[in-house]
Amino acid sequence: MEADILFQIAWGLGGALLGAIIFVGVGLIAGTTETATIAPATLLLVFIGVPPVAVFTFCMAAVVAKHLIHTIPTALLGVPGDTLAVPMIEPCSILRRLGLPHIALQKMISAGVLGAFISVPISIGFALVLAPFGDVVKVWAGAIFTIVAVGVGYTSPGKWASIALIIPFTFFVQGLNKMAIAATGGSVVICVFLGIAMGPLFADLLAALSPISRSRVAVDSPKTFWLAPDLKTWSGYFPNPLKILSRKQKLYTFYAAIFSAITFTASAVGMTIIVGEVVRSKIKSFYEKVITSVSVMNSATESTYMAEILIPLVAFGLPLSSVAMGAAFPLFNAPPMMTPQHNLHHMMTTAQFFWYALLAVAIASIIAYPLAMNYARPASVWVMRNISQEAVLTMFAGLTVVLSYFEAQGAGIVITILMGIFSGVLNKYFGFNVGVQFMSYFAAPWIIMQVFAFK
Amino acid sequence: MQEKQQDLLTIWGDTVAFKDLLVGLLLGGVLGFISLKGGLWYLQTFHGSLEKGLVMGYGLIFGIAGCIAAGAIVAKRSKAKRILMEEEGGIDLDSVLESFQINLQKEAEYLKEVPSDVIAEMHQLKLYELFAGNLQHSKKGGE
Fold it and tell me: Is A232 within the bounds of a domain?
């Protein structure tokens, strides 16, 4: 019996180590979506026939490591590490201009570690007690997104213009979605995200191409950046995330984990954006607002994923969340090894889910966290001196083409470009910022249904 | 002088040479696309037994490799056009704050409500003086 347990622990440890090591590397590569990387890798393990605990720890450690390391391209280069990092591009760009990319990185990754750890007991506890209310959240998700879109619109630079643009924007997004369905049979998500994220780039490019507006973007000399001093408050190799974050940042990270658990059926990106907007609305001081929102958003990328995997897995054994339908799908359904009638839910106990999830979080954190923390500033200096903006945008353009085509072939590329031009112009010239655009996108099906009574 | 001849622009918050950027955008798109399609063709032709999901996943890795290669080529050809200051006072952060359209007077008032641990952090990052200093500037301006 004891030997069995030890054998199982060894497999669990091995799975976590493998997931963490591979996805520390993958996390560094900008644009690698979770579903496209973690799901196939987990599927491979399922088909190889490794024990259930190893499949589980591999997937969990991969998620945690990827979302810790995606902060590096996001904070230092301004290129989204993956889908969930897209909403953090804007605040990271502000912090880079203030000379604080390394501080953004340290705060984000510390909040990520904390969020991952505390979301394990919260998610498991929620799975046991409150899961039946998940359906209620699902029914009201559209209304919640709409209310938040209006609130975020009012606080955006465009104020009333932003609110006035919500309905036209939802029409436009739904129109593009219909176009994708007509062309490929499926709707688009990544194309819309990329379009919104790249909007400002499209607006600047169009301005540069037009003789009328070129003077707005033309400059005489290179931009000067300042890099703040390092903020190394720890000694040795392993920092303590609790000491890196302020009291308020720790508290909001805790609230974000609870919020993620309650809304486990909703979109992980949507929840990350809502968390960021709520934090922003609660804090007045500019520096504290931006650094806290970006930290808590990164913790939400961890806690939403943990909640969206653990709650459906422990409570139902059915993929009832967007993450369970995506990156974690092989844990629920990978026939003939995993089926809705016989998957990890039936193979592992609740106690096993709890301890092995904690093990996976611990292993991923031990590998990824100190590495990023100790080298944040030297890495920032290297990037600023050696990686030109042209190279960053080249990579971003390539990723946009690749990911858009991956999702919806040629129609995907067209949709991303249309989305980018439309959202970029609205953002740049009317203050209809990225936060309102994302919220409007999530609210679009509900708004169209309520206002015009069609899907 | 040479930089001026390069036709510098601010695109997405950073300086670029327009010609280099256009070449880079084209290269990134083309190389990424060819790598993805080439990867998918290779996997479907030589590893036909692979699951469809795995083929797509691995194909994406080929595509991303193409994007990274394009980025590396452009990084080699086109040098970073930034002036990096590490010394305090090396850059006019006031103008950076202005570009964010911050109400500097209000901002300095908000500082009074910021918790002490964040204030200490701002001091260490040399940011506190910037925000608090603006209060002094605006008061002087008002006088």
Answer: no
With CB atoms and an 8 Å threshold, state whether A389 touches B75: no
Taking CA atoms, A318 is separated from A61, A103, A313, A324, A332, in Å, by 21, 40, 7, 8, 6
The count of structural domains within chain A is: 1
Q: Cis (ω within 30 of 0) for the bond into A336?
A: yes
Encoded amino acid at A55, one letter: V
- Cβ <8 Å between B51 and A228: no
Supply angle C-alpha A132, A330, A45, rounded to 5. 140
**Distance (Å, whole) CA A333 – CA A150:** 38
Strand-pair partners of A339: A342
Q: Other C-beta atoms within 10 Å of A150: how many?
A: 16
**pLDDT tens readout for residues A150-169:** 987 887 888 899 999 999 99
DSSP B73-105: HHHHHS---EEEE-STTSS-HHHHHHHTT--HH
Question: Residue A83 — very low, low, confident or very high, per pLDDT cuts 50/70/90?
Answer: confident
Considering only A278-287, A328-337, B26-35, which range has the smallest mean pLDDT? A328-337
pLDDT of residue B137: 47
Q: Is residue A228 part of a domain?
A: no
- Cβ atoms of residues A141 and A431 within 8 Å: no
- Those of residues 62-121 in B touching chain A at CB distance below 8 A are 63-64, 66-68, 70-75, 78-86, 90-93, 96-97, 99-102, 107, 110-111, 113-115, 117-118, 121
Whether the CB-CB separation of A30 and A72 falls below 8 Å is answered with no
Distance from CA of A45 to the nearest CA of B (A): 12
Euclidean distance between CA atoms B54 and A41, whole angstroms: 8
Q: Say if A381 falls within a structural domain.
A: yes
Q: Where are the alpha helices (DSSP H) in A283-314?
A: 286-311
- Residue-range definition of the domain harbouring residue A373: 2-217+238-452
Residue A351 pLDDT grade (very low, low, confident, very high; cuts 50, 70, 90): very high
Residue A275: inside a domain, yes or no?
A: yes
What separation, in Å, do the N-terminal and C-terminal C-alpha atoms of chain A show?
A: 56
